[in-house]
């Protein structure tokens, strides 16, 4: 970064020196000074006093004009305002220049005609003071230093043979077209004219000066282009990219914070849902397909609409993995469930929860079968011969024994459901639980063709009986 700053500083010095080379100060005093712009051969003779700046501007092949500038503050100008410059009995009336006037300055201008400039310069250099009348206000400007400024301009014009200015700044720069002759004397004292070639060295010097100016202008243009292309433009693009990167970084942090707050607000529900939807099969493999689908549902229903509402949806793709990780962390963190919520869960038979009682669990299993088209009823009676749920569909009878356990289910449940199968003349029998099964239970179930199911597998199993 320090190297870049140093390079910028050096290039700024070069660029400043190039720009300053266009303007040359010819003369300077307390009030009056004269300058020359090498680019357009323009001279400016100006004085500044009492909030008024008076300038005489000379441009080749154009009429000279006088300009007076006032600050807008403290004055009341309108478009018809006239300013009068008086040097003794010599008066010039200047009108408002609307094209150059703005909210800071008001510009008044007068263009000289024919030989007026010569008379004005005479008055300007021969008097000590000029009066400027603006509406009902009168101010003055000292003329001491005008002679020095004008003399400096005249000398520069003569030294550099700059033409096309009106009197008194005009110079004769015409090269004679005829070859002059001078008399010479021979040995017989007879005078005879002899031609002498004119001296074109001054013309060659002038041509070289013009060539140097052209080369300077080309070099100046090339330097500006190179500085902009290789220094200024890359710096602008770098700063723009850096600003955009910082903006997107801040927005992404804000988007993640919005998601994190929503997940924290829903942490208790996510914890309950995970308990309901994740279980282990007979081989100890985690069955989490429903939980994965539940995460997608939560993201689509809660997270993405929230990002959309805050105009942050463009960052969702980059943050999705972080969002899923935050959801799993919240769902795996044990939550303090209020007694009211726990009671509601225990009384609900539409969804599984460990807080429900055994009979509610039987009702829940019956409802799971009804969702896939079976007529299913929880027996809720003694003498049911081990059948907790009896279900029928298309002439097929399925009986279930439902076990809400905190430990693996043993072989007793398998024996009881097989007795019930014989009693009810059922086609199929199954044990359904939220827990896993012991080895002996699996062995008896295999020999008796009894299905051992997790309640999440119940609907798939019942549907397969009809399809087969």
Give a nutshell description of this structure.
The protein has helices at 2-20, 116-126, 146-160, 201-265, 267-277, 289-309, 316-332, 339-347, 358-370, 411-424, 439-448, 458-467, and strands at residues 23-28, 32-37, 42-49, 52-58, 65-71, 82-87, 90-96, 105-111, 129-134, 137-142, 181-185, 191-195, 279-280, 286-287, 375-378, 389-393, 396-403, 428-433, 451-454. The chain has twelve helices and 19 strands.
Structural write-up:
This protein is an alpha+beta fold and 468 residues long. It has twelve helices and 19 strands. The strands form four sheets. Strands 1-2-3-4-5-8-7-6-9-10 form a ten-stranded antiparallel β-sheet. A hairpin with a 2-residue loop joins β9 (129-134) and β10 (137-142). α4 (201-265) runs parallel beside α7 (316-332) and α6 (289-309) packs across α7. The longest helix has 65 residues, at 201-265. It is rod-shaped.
Write the layout of secondary structure elements.
Blueprint: H1 2-20, E1 23-28, E2 32-37, E3 42-49, E4 52-58, E5 65-71, E6 82-87, E7 90-96, E8 105-111, H2 116-126, E9 129-134, E10 137-142, H3 146-160, E11 181-185, E12 191-195, H4 201-265, H5 267-277, E13 279-280, E14 286-287, H6 289-309, H7 316-332, H8 339-347, H9 358-370, E15 375-378, E16 389-393, E17 396-403, H10 411-424, E18 428-433, H11 439-448, E19 451-454, H12 458-467
Parallel strand pairs: 17-18, 18-19
Antiparallel strand pairs: 1-2, 2-3, 3-4, 4-5, 5-8, 6-7, 6-9, 7-8, 9-10, 11-12, 13-14, 15-16, 16-17
Helix pairs in contact: 1-4, 4-6, 4-7, 5-7, 6-7, 10-11
């Amino acid at each position: 970064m320090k190297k870049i700053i140093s390079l910028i500083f050096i290039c700024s010095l070069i660029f400043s020196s190039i720009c300053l080379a266009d303007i040359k100060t010819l003369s300077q005093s307390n009030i009056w000074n004269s300058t020359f712009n090498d680019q357009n051969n323009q001279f400016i003779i100006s004085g500044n006093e009492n909030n008024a700046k008076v300038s005489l501007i000379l441009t080749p092949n154009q009429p000279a004009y006088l300009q007076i500038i006032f600050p807008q503050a403290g004055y009341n100008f309108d478009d018809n305002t006239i300013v009068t410059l008086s040097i003794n009995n010599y008066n010039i009336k200047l009108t408002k220049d609307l094209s150059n006037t703005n909210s800071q300055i008001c510009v008044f201008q007068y263009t000289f005609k024919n030989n007026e400039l010569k008379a004005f310069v005479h008055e300007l250099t021969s008097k000590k003071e000029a009066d400027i009348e603006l509406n009902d206000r009168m101010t003055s400007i000292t003329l001491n230093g005008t002679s020095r400024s004008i003399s400096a301009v005249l000398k520069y014009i003569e030294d550099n043979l700059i033409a096309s200015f009106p009197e008194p700044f005009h110079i004769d720069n015409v090269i004679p077209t005829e070859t002059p002759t001078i008399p010479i004397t021979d040995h017989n004292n007879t005078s005879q004219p002899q031609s002498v070639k004119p001296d074109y060295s001054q013309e060659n010097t002038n041509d070289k000066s013009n060539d140097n100016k052209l080369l300077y202008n080309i070099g100046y243009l090339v330097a500006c282009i190179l500085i902009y292309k290789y220094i200024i433009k890359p710096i602008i693009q770098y700063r723009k990219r850096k600003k955009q990167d910082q903006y997107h970084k801040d927005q992404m942090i804000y988007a993640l914070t919005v998601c994190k707050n929503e997940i924290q607000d829903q942490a208790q529900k996510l914890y309950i849902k995970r308990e309901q939807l994740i279980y282990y099969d007979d081989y100890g493999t985690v069955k989490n397909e429903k939980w994965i689908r539940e995460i997608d549902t939560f993201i689509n229903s809660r997270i993405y609409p929230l990002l959309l509402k805050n105009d942050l949806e463009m960052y969702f793709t980059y943050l999705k993995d972080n969002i899923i990780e935050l959801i799993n962390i919240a769902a795996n963190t044990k939550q303090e469930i209020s007694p009211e919520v726990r009671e509601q869960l225990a009384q609900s038979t539409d969804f599984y929860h460990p807080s429900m009682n055994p009979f509610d669990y039987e009702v829940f299993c019956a409802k799971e079968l009804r969702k896939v088209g079976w007529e299913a009823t929880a027996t809720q009676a003694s003498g049911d011969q081990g059948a907790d749920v009896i279900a029928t569909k298309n002439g097929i009878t399925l009986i279930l024994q439902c076990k809400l356990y905190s430990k693996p289910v043993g072989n007793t449940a398998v024996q009881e459901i097989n007795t019930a199968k014989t009693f009810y003349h059922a086609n199929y029998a199954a044990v359904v639980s939220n827990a896993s099964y012991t080895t002996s239970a699996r062995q008896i179930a295999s020999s008796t063709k009894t299905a051992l199911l997790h309640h999440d597998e119940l609907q798939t199993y019942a549907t397969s009986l009809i399809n087969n």
